[in-house]
Amino acid sequence: MSCKQCWKELQGMDIEGKGPRVVTTRPFACGEVICDYHGRLISREEGLEIYQNSEGEAGHSFFFTDKNGQLMCLDAHEEHCECHPNKTTFGRQMKHSAKWGNLSPRLYSVEDEPVILFMTTRSIQRGEEIQYDYGDNKRAYAGDGLDLMPS
Which GO MF terms does the UniProt record name (predicted)? Predict the structure, then answer.
């Protein structure tokens, strides 16, 4: 996947009693793109194997169905990727909240490769934590792929 992302309006922060979180450094309007989920593109089967064999953190796997109906996974288990060797990407750091989520993932295609972008579902204030519903309680999670709204 080509790496053209640069999400300057976000920062990692350790929040007392909650641990590491991602917060905004400026306000965002409803419907704005806030960041992507960046990782190694692999098959669903590879993703399930990594997910099932993970010790400790079982997160960092984003399962979805691509525009051709292929079951895929973005694997972000490695903190640093080849194209960003000196930084952790924000998508892998975002936390889950089914109740308080303020982002929604959307499937796009860039240079014929799938890209998961997160759009705000409401206005977000400066300094607010960003989070989304991982979908792990949904039937589609790690099964038929997350039901994303393709663009």
Answer: histone H4K20 methyltransferase activity
Q: Does domain 11-150 have CATH number 2.170.270.10?
A: yes
**Eight-state DSSP code of residue 101:** -
| Domain definitions of the chain by residue range | 11-150
CA count, 13 A, side-chain hemisphere, 82? 5
- Which pLDDT tens digit goes with each residue over 112-141? 888 899 999 999 999 999 999 887 665 444
Q: Which of 95, 144, 88, 136 is nearest to 118 (CA)?
A: 95
Residue 79 pLDDT > 50, yes or no? yes
